[in-house]
User: Which sequence fits this backbone?
């Protein structure tokens, strides 16, 4: 993973790797990590630096291991789904359809969180802690 001048131009070796990282970075687990490691108790937007962002421990995979490749693939599929829902939501005018899309986005977000918990090997108690702190 390489970072350029700001966090908005993060790159990885492949698009699927970037999507995988996007899923991890936008999970409740990362929110918990961020609040634990970099909380300054301000109510304003937190300062995000390249150093702090690159310190987030993103799981590395061995593409030859079927189980790791499957987890990586699941994450990429969920992130693609979330991005597609976001695009469709931006264009949707019907409030009932938007509501249904929000429900799908929430469910997809939850699936991503569960996958991240699995990737990091969190126990049930650890998951409860993460979810209680990141409400």
Assistant:
């Amino acid at each position: 993973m390489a970072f350029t001048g700001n966090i908005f131009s993060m790159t990885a070796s492949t698009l699927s790797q970037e999507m995988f990282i996007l899923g991890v970075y936008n999970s409740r687990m990362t929110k918990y990590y961020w609040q634990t490691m970099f909380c300054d108790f301000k109510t304003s937007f937190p300062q995000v630096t390249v150093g702090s962002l690159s310190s987030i421990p993103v799981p590395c995979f061995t593409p030859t291991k079927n189980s790791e490749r499957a987890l990586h693939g699941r994450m990429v599929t969920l992130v693609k789904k979330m991005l597609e829902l976001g695009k469709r939501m931006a264009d949707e005018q019907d409030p009932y359809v938007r509501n249904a899309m929000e429900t799908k986005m929430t469910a997809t977000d939850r699936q991503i969180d569960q996958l991240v918990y699995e990737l990091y090997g969190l126990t049930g108690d650890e998951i409860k802690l993460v979810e209680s702190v990141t409400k």
In short: Helices lie at 15-25, 28-38, 50-54, 66-91, 95-120, 124-133. The radius of gyration is 16 Å. The chain has six helices and no strands. The chain has one domain: 7-133.
